[in-house]
Amino acid sequence: MLIKNLEKHYNILFIILFNFIFASSVSKAAEAAEAAEAGEELSACQADPRFSEFDFWLGEWEVHSADGRYVGSNVIAKLERGCVIVERWTGAAGGTGQSINYFDLEHMQWTQIWGAADGTQISIRGGLTEQGMRLTGKIRSLDSPAAADFRGLWTKLDAGRVRQFFEQSNDGGKTWTPWFEGFYTLRMNEK
Questions:
Q1: How far does CA 147 lie from the centroid of its chain?
Q2: Distance from C-alpha of 6 to C-alpha of 14, rounded to nearest angstrom
Q3: Structure pTM?
Q4: Beta-ladder partners of 169
Q5: Per-residue model confidence as pLDDT tens digits over 162-174
Q6: What is the Cα–Cα distance from 31 to 46, expressed in whole angstroms?
Q7: For FRET with 48, which of 75, 169, 171, 175 sits at 20 to 30 Å CA-CA?
């Protein structure tokens, strides 16, 4: 099922990612104001609050580890009239990756599909919980193409910050090992 979902969304993901020109993300309020000013109606996604549940992650971010070490930057932008969130990661060591995130109307869940320059692929889905945005699914890599269980949690923190925490399980979910933890702070021009 997961492979079918990946294949189903593969073309959409790469068309959007390769055609994406990163610019400052526009908040939902700004999009609504621009649409109203131009005499346009809100798109179906802009008018549906489910498509705004992940908006706390939008922006141009600097990302640090728990001990304060800089680990990379991330640009999270809302595109396609509010229907898609695109992520572009650049690690401090030079690694890169991109994701496409959207509210899947068929499954009534958020979906993230990630691809990185090192061949890592992640496909996770879920939704808002009391702790934040929780997505679960699978991770694969070129080094070990067997899928492993994977989960991520994005938590809105004080002062507009966000914590992103990923875990991986190699034993069917019996035990979980931290895979990445990053603390997001908006770049100065975003504050």
A1: 20
A2: 12
A3: 0.79
A4: 149
A5: 999 999 999 999 9
A6: 8
A7: 75
